Amino acid sequence: MLRHEFQPGRLVAGCFLALAGVVYAGDAGGAWETPWFAVIPLVVGGLCLAGVVGLIGRGIRRRRAVSAGGKTAPVGTGAETPR
Fold it and tell me: Which residues cross the membrane (predicted)?
């Protein structure tokens, strides 16, 4: 049983922010040279992708809730699909 609702948008955002941290850590450790502006597109692109993934996930959960019970449950409560 899940203790919380799975949120794919937050997973994608966390992965991109962790990647940005790895890029800066590699630069600080001397493994490679990274220009100061190189991480900006990485973070902004990751946040945009996370937003799209979050909206798609929310739409899928709403569609599943409507088809399961005929009435809509509030999104974010985890009560959309009783299993």
Answer: 35-56
pTM confidence score? 0.74
21: containing domain: 9-25+39-67
| 77 found inside a domain | no
9 and 46 Cβ atoms separated by less than 8 Å: no
Does 33 reside within a domain?
no
Residue 63 covered by a domain: yes
Q: What is the DSSP string of 40-74?
A: HHHHHHHHHHHHHHHHHHHHHHHHHHHHHHSSPPP
Statement: residue 8 has pLDDT above 90? yes
The answer to whether 20 touches 42, Cβ cutoff 8 Å, is: yes
